[in-house]
Amino acid sequence: MSTLTQSSAPASTPIVKPAAQIRSWKIPITFGSFAVLSLFLFVVLGRGLRGELSTFRLSEGRDLIQLPEVALPTFATGVFVAVVLVLMAAASAWLVYRHTKIPIVLTILFALLFLVGFLAWAASGSTIPVPGLLIGTVTLSAPLIFGALGGVLSERAGVVNVAIEGQLLAGAFSSAVVASATGNPYLGLLAAMVAGALVSMVLAAFVLKYLVDQVIVGVVLNVLVIGLTSFLYSQVLAPSANLNSPDVFPRLNVPFLSEIPIIGPVLFRQTIIVYVMYVAIALVYFGLFRTKWGLRVRAVGEHPQAADTVGINVNRTRFIAVTLGGVISGFGGAYFTLGAVGAFNKEMTNGMGFIALAAVIFGQWHPIKATLAALLFGFATNLQNVLGIIGSPVPSEFMLMLPYVVTIFAVAGFVGRSRAPAADGKPYIK
Amino acid sequence: MKLELRGITKRFGALVANNNISLTVESGEIHALLGENGAGKSTLMNVLYGLYNAEEGDILLDDVVQKFAGPGDAMNAGIGMVHQHFMLVPVFTVAENVVLGHEQTTFGGRLDLSAARAKVREISDRFGFDIDPDALIEDLPVGVQQRVEIIKALSQDAKVLVFDEPTAVLTPQETDELMIIMRQLAESGTSIVFITHKLREVRAVADRITVIRLGTVVGEASPTATNAELASLMVGRAVELTVHKNAPELRGTALSVKNLSVIDSRNQIVVNSVSFDVQAGEVLAIAGVQGNGQTELTEALLGLQQHVTGLIELDGKPLRGYSVRHILDSGVGFVPEDRTEDGLIADFSIAENLMLDRSSGAPFVKAGNLQLGFRAQFAAEKIAEFDIRSQGSEMEAGRLSGGNQQKVVLARELSRELRLFVAAQPTRGLDVGSIEFVHTRIIETRDSGIPVIVVSTELDEVVALADRIAVMYRGEIVGIVPGNTPRATLGLMMAGEHAPATESGL
User: Fold this and answer.
1) Model pTM?
2) How far apart are CA B93 and CA A193, in angstroms?
3) Nearest beta carbon to residue A309 from set B87, B267, B474
4) How far apart are CA B61 and CA B24, in angstroms?
C-alpha cells in the first residue's frame, strides 16, 4: 500500500497503481463447497466401509513396460481426501483473509485430489483403466480442440464465431460423403476442410461485407447446416448406403514413443487426425504470436482503426483469418465420421461446437489454453463413459450432465473476467 | 518536403465538410491549422492521409500530384500522422506497435522484433525520449504514448508530419516539451501541420497560421496576431474570452468528502484517500490530466462506483452507499463527461431526454402513465429557456449539434431542486458560443447558492471558472489552491508536484 510513488517519476515509467485490497471469496467458497461435497460423498455415505478396494490400472495389456496396479482402500482414501480438501479450503480462506494471492498450484492440487477421491469412491470394488480413460480423453477432445482453434483464430481477428458447430457438422458430412465416394479417406479430410471454409466464408461475407450481427449470422448458419445435412442425409445418404460408409482411420502407433508408460498410449497410439491436431495447435500458436501475419490478425482484432492507419486491409485480414479458422474447424468435423463412427448421422456433432466455443472463452482466446480447456471437457465426457461401463453409484443421467456442468462452472466460475480481443464482435466501419 | 493542398472539397451527403480548401506547407515549416471543433480540420487531414477520398482537389508533394487509395499510400509518399485518438494497440508492446504494417521477418516468416526494438531505440535516442521498446502501451502514460505515435511516424521516414490536436491529453509541461520536439523536427527539415483550437499554442510554435471555419479557409494570420484577433477569425464574430464573475458569496460547507477511495474493476486504487469540502456558492474545479481519477471521483459522488470507501456528506447527510436514485433525489445534479454515452439517449427525443431522471412519479408519470401533455409543455419551456436550437421537442437528441446536446443535459440537471451540481468536462468538444453559454450557466448556478464541482482537463476552463482548484494526480489530490494560482504552478501540480504552500483540506 505504501508503494504509491508520489514524486514526479520519469515520464516513461509505466503508471504503477497499487493493487487494491478487495477480497474475492470466490475460490474459498468454491473449495469449501467441494470439500463439503467430498465429506458427504466419501465419509457420510460410508461407501466402502466393508473394506472394498479401488483399483487403478496404469498399463494396457499390450504395453511393453507393465506398471503394477494400484489398489487403494476406498473408505480410507475417501476420508483422507476429504480431510485434506477441508484443510486446503481453510488454507485458501486464510490466504484471502491475509490478502495473499492463492497460488494456481493450490487450485490444481485441489482439483487433482478431488478427482482421485472421486474416482476411488466411484470405483469402489472395481477397476479404473487409467490409460483407457486418458486415451479416450485425447480422442474425444480432438473435435473440440480443432473447433476451439478455429474459434480462436476467428475471434482474435475480431469476428465472433458461433458457427463452429456448423463448421464441424459440415466437415463431418462432406468428409463422409467424399471419402465414401472416392474410397480415399484423405480426400475426405480435404473435403472437410473445404466445407468448413465454405461455412466460415458465408459467415465472413455477411459479417464483414453486410455488417450483419455476428452472433445472429453464426446461430443462423448452425441451423442452416443442421437442416441441410439432415435433409441430404435422409434424401441421399439413407437410400444409398455406399455414399455413407467411409473407411475409418486406424490407430497408428508411433515407434518407441508409444511405449512410454501412460503417456505413450495416450498421445502416440492415436489416429492421423490426432497427430494433425498436434501440428495444428503448434501452427496456430506460432502463427498468431511469432509471425507478421499473426501480429496483423491480432491488431485487427484489438484496434482495427490503428491497423487501418498503418495500411493493413482490415476486412481482408479478417476474412482470411475467419476462413482459416473454418478450415481447421471443418477438419475437426472429419473426426466424427472418419475418426470415430464410420458413418454420418443426423446432428452427430451434438453441441460439440458450442462446447468448443466455451473452450475458446475458458482458454482466454489463447490456442494452448483453449486446448487445455477442450481437454478438460473431453475428460469429463470420457469419465462419464468409463464410469458408465464400470458401473458407478451416480445415476447415468447425472453423469451425462457432467461435461456441461464442467463447462458452466469453468466459463462462469473460474474464469471470472477474462479479456476478449477488444474489437471482438464489432464490425469495422471507417 | 513541400506539401500543397489545392481546392480540396469533401462532402458527406448534403454536408460539405471541406469546401475548396487550399493550403501550402513549405519544407521545415510548422503550419498551424486553427479552427473550432467541427470546422473540418480533421476531415481535411484524413483526406490528406488517404482515409477519405476527396470529391475534388489535388494533393501535391514537392509539386507532384499524388493519388492515395489508403493510408498505406500516404505513408509510402512520406506523410505521417499523430492521431488525436492514438492509433496504438493497447495490449501490444511499443516495438510491436511501431513495426505494425511494416514488419520485418526472418527465416520462416518469423517476426523480427529485435530489429524493431533497435529502431525504437535509435529514434528515441535521437530525440531523447527514453522509451522502453518492450513496455506495453496500456501501461504507459498518455504523454509517452504520444511519443510512441511520433516514433511510429518517423520510423516510416515521414517528411510531412500531421499532429491532430496533439495537446488535448497533455499536461502543460508535456505540451511545452512537445513544442520543443516539433521545433526539432522542423529544423531537421520535416514539414509539420499542427491542428489545434488552442490559440496560445499556435502563437507559441507556428510559422504560419491558416484559420478554417465551417469547412472553408477564412484567412491566414501570422503568429504575431493577438488572441482576440485569432478567436474572432475562428468564430466569425467578436468573442468574450473571459467569464465575468464576481467574488463568491460563501454560505458554509455543503459537501464534505473525507478519505474517499475508489477501487475499480481491475482491482486498482483509482482514487486514493481524497478529502475536500465545497462551500455553498463556490466553484471547486478539479484539474488534472485525463485519467488521474477524476472520472471515478465524480462517479463515486453519484453512487455509480462499486467499491467506494470513505465519507461523503451533503448538508450533513451521508451519501455514500446509497443508490443513484436516492442521491439524485437528495439534490445532486450531474453532467457526465461523455454526453453521448452517459448524458443522453441519442435515439430518444429531446422531451424524453429531459425527463429521463424523473420517470418514477408525478408530475411526469401519474398512475403509471406518461403525462405526454405535461412533458411537451415542459420540454417547450426548457428549449426556450436554454436556447436549444432544434426542430421541436420531438426531434431525436442524437441529431442535435454537440452544443445543443449539452444544453439538453444542462436543462435536465438544472431544472431540478439542486443542493449540489457536478459538471464533468462540461464543454468538451463544444464550439466557442456554446462554451460561453455553459460557463455562464455554471456561474449562475454558483451565484444562486449551490455548491458546484467542475471537472476539467482544460486549464483555460479551470482558471476561468474556479474559486478554488483541486489538482488530481494518480488518484490523489496534490493540493487545493486558490482560483488565481498561476498557470505554471498548476501545470507543475498536474505533473504531481506539490504546491509550494498547500492549503490542503480547506
Assistant:
1) 0.82
2) 35
3) B87
4) 10
ipTM associated with this complex: 0.83
As a whole number of angstroms, the distance between CA A383 and CA A42 comes to 18
Chain A residue whose CA is closest to B171: A11
- Name the burial class of residue A223, with classes exposed (0-12), middle (13-18) and buried (19+) by CB atoms within 10 angstroms of its CB: exposed
**Quick one: which of B174, B178, B163, B179 has its CA closest to B86?**
B163
Determine if the peptide bond prior to B90 is cis (ω within 30°): no
Closest Cβ–Cβ partner in B97, B139, B497 for A8? B497
- 3-class state of residue B260 by DSSP: strand
Q: How many angstroms away from the CA of A31 is the closest CA of chain B?
A: 22
What span, in angstroms and rounded, lies between the C-alpha atoms of A135 and A371?
Answer: 16
Contact A298 B89 (CB under 8 A): yes
State yes or no: pLDDT of B399 exceeds 60. yes
Q: Which domains does chain A have, with CATH numbers?
A: 23-125 (no CATH), 135-395 (1.10.3470)
Residue B135, pLDDT > 70, answer yes
- Res A4: pLDDT: 35
Q: What are the distances in angstroms from CA A285 to CA A293, A371, B49, B90? A: 12, 11, 34, 21
**pLDDT of the residue at B429:** 77
Q: What is the DSSP letter of B312?
A: E
Please check whether residue A19 is in contact with residue B272, taking contact to mean a CB–CB distance below 8 angstroms: no
Strands B208-213 and B30-34: parallel
Structural domains of chain B, with CATH? 3-235 (3.40.50.300), 244-331+417-505 (3.40.50.300), 347-414 (no CATH)
- Point out which residues pair with B206 in neighbouring strands: none
In angstroms, the separation between the Cα of residue A57 and the nearest Cα of chain B is 44
Q: Percent of chain B at pLDDT above 90? A: 49
- 8 Å CB contact between B473 and B496: yes
The CA distance from B46 to the nearest CA of chain A, in Å, is: 10
